[in-house]
UniProtKB/TrEMBL annotation:
Domain Aminoacyl-transfer RNA synthetases class-II family profile per the UniProt entry, residue ranges: 142-418
Organism of provenance: Flavobacterium jejuense
Domain of life the protein comes from: Bacteria
Catalytic reaction annotation: tRNA(Gly) + glycine + ATP = glycyl-tRNA(Gly) + AMP + diphosphate
HAMAP family linked to this entry: Gly_tRNA_synth_B (MF_00253_B)
Record flagged with keyword GTP-binding: no
GO molecular function: glycine-tRNA ligase activity
Full protein name: Glycine--tRNA ligase
Binding site for ATP: 250-252, 260-265, 332-333, 376-379
Function: Catalyzes the attachment of glycine to tRNA(Gly).
Oxidoreductase keyword on record: no
Main location: cytoplasm
Organism lineage string: Bacteria, Pseudomonadati, Bacteroidota, Flavobacteriia, Flavobacteriales
Similarity annotation: Belongs to the class-II aminoacyl-tRNA synthetase family.
Amino acid sequence: MAKQDDLFKNVVSHAKEYGFIFPSSEIYDGLSAVYDYAQNGVELKKNIREYWWKAMVQMHENIVGIDASIFMHPTTWKASGHVDAFSDPLIDNKDSKKRYRADVLIEDYAEKINIKAQKEIEKAKGRFGEVFNEQEFVTTNERVKGYLEQKNAILQRMARSLENDDLADVKALIEELGIACPESGSKNWTEVRQFNLMFATKLGASADTAMDLYLRPETAQGIFVNFLNVQKTGRMKIPFGIAQTGKAFRNEIVARQFIFRMREFEQMEMQFFVKPGEEIKWYEYWKETRLNWHKSLGLGAENYRFHDHEKLAHYANAAADIEFNFPFGFKELEGIHSRTDFDLKAHEEFSGKKLQFFDNDTNSSYVPYVVETSVGLDRMFLAVFSKALQEETLEDGSTRTVLRLPSVLAPTKAAVLPLIKRDGLPEVAKEIIEELKWDFNVSYDEKDAVGRRYRRQDALGTPFCITVDHQTLEDKTVTIRHRDSMQQDRVAITELKNIISNEVAMRNWLMRM
Ligand code: ATP
């Protein structure tokens, strides 16, 4: 655990030191769970957004994008169920005065049991070697079976209690399991209560005519209310999708994990409208497709896993998370939900307008079913950033910090460095920048010895350093240094664009999907 904590601390401090993420309004001591993206962070975030948009919109003929407003008519949130049901069960520890999500306390407990089972499996794998049959082991080894059954029983009971709104049983479960406050070790808990996560605000000048509004807690509803507008004006045929990226706001009960859980965050969502009865096929398709998108970034397939939901939200008939191995363990990165016709039907009912698709083939109308993919942009940032940050011991025994960002996402693609600050080298370096900047984000650095400049760029995740030296003046060649291998090649200036492009082009990365 200590190692994990250290890694996480490194991530937070590196993000600040190298201009990726700052605490919001830091001169006033910050605002809890609110963060600002800095000069490099904003580029990385933009690149992740673009990587998603290209994969979802540009590469799918039947998916289009929109950009709906954050404010929506307040009835939207009545219809969607958020006013009545968008809440988390909270519990306070009476001694430490710390507040927790009751479901998260129980899930963390269950995960500890799961980890015990996984350790046994790993040990057995080592013992049996090639002949190891995991499926058989898991179903026959008494100890592992016991752990897994125990874990499932806990999660199932929690799911049932939450579904039945039996908060007393959620508390009883916490007590039976002997779950203690992670901060203080105390088991002195309050009752469990539901807490609505939406931020309310007002629209209008005078107090009596002002209208109560909410900051949207998800971008999805902006898509549902525009379903028919897009379908008609875009002449879309089912199945088709509408994608959107944008801010969402949740008054999270516990927000202590940097940009993993923020009160203002960004989502990248796509709602896919399908014929009723075909939703499970599409749900499976999108689970697979989204996992492949994540894997295409090369952060390691072992860092992803599916978690199928025991407890389904009020709108879903199937749901799974893609979980990622964050510095604090496997947690939700993306949700894939089969939302049925719940949302469109509810909006029909509350608005009195039809939200149906007319099927020319059958000459009849129906309310489509919806499969949603929803990934947090900030969580995606944290996933990429935390996996990329590495401390490396080099052959000569020295260490370097390197941010091995997938080069397609790197904020700066190349840094151009004159070996020394005179003899006309800076001028040539700047000429190279003038040429490359049409295609790539590039930077110039002439301060300090070249070795230190390399290290600085390694820490920023820049895939290439291009060094201009005296030979450049003679034969128009430069050295190009690769961030990950540190290999240096001598190449003609005219080749640079191709070399960089080959490595960073989205096309080449997305083709791995
Ligand atoms: P969690 O269980 O972690 O609270 P959720 O199931 O409520 O998440 P969804 O409503 O499915 O999340 O939202 C879709 C995605 O939006 C999540 O997978 C996550 O990546 C992102 N997300 C949700 N809440 C936050 C938050 N407070 N901060 C950052 N990202 C978030």
